[in-house]
Write a structure and sequence with these properties.
With about 650 residues, the protein is α/β, with parallel strands linked by helices. It contains 20 helices and 17 strands. Strands 8-9-10-11-12-13-14-15 form an 8-stranded parallel beta barrel, surrounded by 5 helices.
Length: about 650
């Protein structure tokens, strides 16, 4: 009986190992992950075998992933019996990697799931050495599979659970629209975002920075060959920077979509050269490496008369046709094709007008070139993506839609940071429906691209969630996603510090501050508040120290949030000093010197918002109305900031 029970226990353990889910923590969350029996280890040298259909960008990405894990990759036409091998294949094509997939008897059903994108299978197994197969529906899908391998290797290269992953995206294009009003991202921030997006399977970045004069005000002019330091500090880009950005986009397989904003000229019946001028600018950008374009006519008034609506549609068709004729009839390779135009219409929030008017508008716009991709923001400007709004507009338009999501955009709240979890950000952003949630079955969006904050690096926390959700709607878990996002952005060693500090970097610092302040006002015990402020100070310093880590993304993040760190640190220090003076006054031991200090502290609180290290540059306006000004960061604006004034009043 004991032998029988032992045998049954071993069998159960084996089955549990064989079919256990989630051998690895991978984001975005895979649609299917199964641990296979046993573990495996990589040899120091790893052979990369890529079938002919795999492009060189994907091969280079494989080499990068392996090298970053301390392995030595070697590209070869065939595998080695002594070395681990990473096989890269496109399904249904001839090649060594496909033959390996056949020998493994890989189930390819995931590669044929209807209505899904970037479909791929990853298998990692091997008893004597680790071998990995990534089989995609195309080379871009195989590239996505490398993001999963990269996160698998975060665990190390030895004693790794064997695993099968069958995966795909729910939404075709996932990523970022730099379309806010404010200082455009620097080239360094943009390129770093591309690398972040590649790691988390986002593939679209539309550039339409409202305050870039060469997007709007000087839309027909070429980017300059050089810019001044001052111009660089407020987001100007040179032609060389644009070329560099386009190059990194290609290496990360992010569709870099450069958008133009011709404004009212697009529907000016007296301007018969507008399409030619747009195409001339597109040619300049094409020469810099751009292979997809956008055209924005948002925020210039919504046309309602038949003639203008017809002209709007005709010119969009004319523009898409011109692109097809110029670049897509005789291209040298698939990489040289120019993908469809991305069009942001005048009416992107359909509730601006009554139902008959928006139906008339979208029916007219529906009579355009079928390849043109048309964006909406839903019922209103800040609407959270939902199927109902997509159904309303697509029913009138007669075609599918893409979603421009104004999240975590702060151009209407420039002094605030949204660096918490998705639903906390919704609650903090007064323009968003605070009770909104993300539907587990969003339908009808060909693209979901998020318009982020003016602080690109700090936007990563929210963009991580956008990528996670748009890849796998049903698996989105708000809390788990945020914890993973923080680790992804600041590293697991700093994650606890940042999650703590994020409670204070936000404007609505309800807890723990609300309870601490209420308790102090009730019992006069300053010790708990002082202890909390000391913790805030030390954590601010820990975040400041990130700038010296040697990682570019860390220094860029610190630069993004520097005014908020400065302001929060100063508030924490000032709170402690004020409480010290109040305690001295209560005890009757306040000296003349203390009274001078108290007077200085009161003036410091009164002048607090004037300190330069709490300020940052902003740009407002579009076209000819772009203006530079400054704003003051507002961390902990709900509880801690008023508490300073309360304490000053006590003196």
């Amino acid at each position: 009986m004991k032998k029988l029970l032992l045998t049954l226990a071993i069998m159960v353990a084996s089955l549990t190992t064989l079919w256990a889910h989630d051998a690895y923590t991978i984001y975005p969350v895979p649609h299917m992950q199964k641990a296979l029996a046993g573990t495996t280890s990589f040899t120091q040298q790893v052979t990369v075998v890529a079938d002919p259909q795999i492009d060189q960008v994907t091969v280079r990405r494989a080499l990068q992933v392996l090298s970053a894990s301390g392995l030595t990759p070697v590209v070869s036409a065939k595998p080695s019996s002594k070395m681990s091998c990473v096989y890269l294949a496109v399904d249904g094509k001839k090649g060594v990697a496909n033959s390996y997939a056949d020998r493994l008897k890989v189930n390819r059903n995931a590669l044929a799931v209807a209505g899904k994108y970037d479909r791929h299978v990853l298998v990692m197994n091997g008893t004597k050495k680790a071998d990995v197969l990534i089989l995609g529906e195309n080379t871009d899908a195989t590239f996505c599979g490398l993001a999963s391998l990269e996160q698998i290797l975060d665990r190390g290269t030895s004693n790794l659970p064997c695993v099968l992953i069958e995966d795909y995206a729910d939404i075709q294009y996932r990523g970022v629209i730099e379309g806010y009003y404010g200082v455009p991202y620097s080239a360094d921030v943009t390129k770093d975002l591309f690398r972040f997006m590649a790691r988390y399977k986002m593939n679209a970045y539309m550039y339409g920075a409202k305050s870039d004069p060469y997007h709007s005000q000087k839309w027909a002019e070429a980017y300059p060959d050089s810019i001044t330091p001052k111009q660089k500090s407020i987001g100007y880009l040179s032609s060389g920077m644009m070329r560099d950005i386009a190059s990194v986009a290609r290496d990360t397989k992010v569709n870099f979509i450069w958008a133009i904003h011709p404004g009212p000229a697009f529907t000016d019946p007296g301007d018969n050269t507008v399409i030619d001028r747009i195409m001339s600018k597109f040619q300049i950008m094409h020469d810099l490496g751009v292979r997809q374009f956008g055209c924005f006519v948002d925020d210039v008034g919504v046309p309602t008369d038949d003639a203008t609506l017809r002209l709007n549609a005709d010119r969009l068709t004319e523009l898409q046709t011109a692109i097809e004729n110029r670049w897509n009839k005789n291209y040298a390779s698939p990489a040289d094709t120019v993908k469809p135009i991305n069009f942001v219409p005048q009416l992107y929030a359909y509730s601006w007008v009554n139902a008959p008017t928006h139906e008339k508008y979208y029916r007219a716009l529906g009579k355009t070139h079928p390849q043109a991709i048309i964006y909406i923001t839903g019922n209103s400007v800040w609407t959270v993506p939902n199927t109902h709004d997509l159904d309303v507009v697509s029913g009138e338009l007669g075609r599918g839609l893409a979603w421009w999501w104004n999240y975590p955009c702060n151009d209407n709240d420039m002094t605030k940071l949204f660096v918490r979890d998705t639903y906390s950000n919704f609650a903090d952003e007064r323009w968003i429906d605070n009770n909104a949630t993300l539907a587990p079955d969003l339908r009808g969006a060909s693209a979901l691209i998020a318009n982020p904050m003016q602080q690109g690096e700090a936007s990563k926390f929210a963009l991580f969630g956008v990528g996670d959700y748009s890849w796998n709607n049903a698996a989105f878990d708000n809390e788990a996603d945020y914890h993973a996002a923080v680790k992804a952005v600041v590293g697991k060693d700093r994650a606890t510090d940042f999650e703590y500090l994020s409670q204070f970097l936000r404007y609505y610092d309800n807890e723990p501050m609300a309870s601490l302040v209420d308790a102090y006002k009730s019992n006069g015990n300053s010790a708990p508040v002082k202890a909390e402020m000391l913790k805030v100070l030390s954590t601010c310093q820990a975040m400041q120290d990130m700038a010296a880590s040697g990682r570019e993304c860390d220094s860029l993040l610190v630069a993004d949030i520097q005014p908020w760190l400065n302001c929060l640190g100063d508030m924490a220090a000032l709170t402690i000093q004020l409480l010290d003076q109040i305690d001295a006054k209560k005890s009757g031991r306040q000296t003349d010197a203390d009274r001078l200090v108290a007077a200085h502290l009161k003036k410091t609180v009164a002048d607090f918002d004037q300190y330069g290290n709490h300020q940052f540059n902003v740009l407002n306006g579009l076209g000819n109305d772009i203006e530079l000004s400054t704003r003051v960061a507002e961390p902990s604006g709900k509880i801690l900031r008023p508490f300073l004034t309360h304490l000053a009043d006590q003196l």
